[in-house]
Design a protein that fits this description.
about 70 residues; AlpA; Prophage regulatory protein; alpha+beta
Length: about 70
């Protein structure tokens, strides 16, 4: 299993990266994920979570497409 997306970028992104990509705080993203309004993070360690880059990027695209 490859840990990169198309050999270029890592498939996972840290909460900090997801926060920067969405311009929302890490706390808000966590709350939204718990409410089913943002992709769920993946537990990759005892105290470490990451988001699937493709899911976050898809969520962003969805938001952009939804505007009129």
């Amino acid at each position: 299993m490859s840990h990169t997306d198309n050999g270029q970028r890592p498939r996972l992104m840290s909460p900090k990266e997801a926060s920067q990509a969405t311009t929302m705080s890490r706390v808000l993203l966590s709350l939204m994920a718990k409410e089913g309004k943002f992709p769920q993070p993946v537990q990759i360690g005892v105290k470490r979570q990451a988001y699937v880059r493709a899911e976050v990027e898809g969520w962003i695209e969805e938001k952009i497409s939804a505007r009129d």
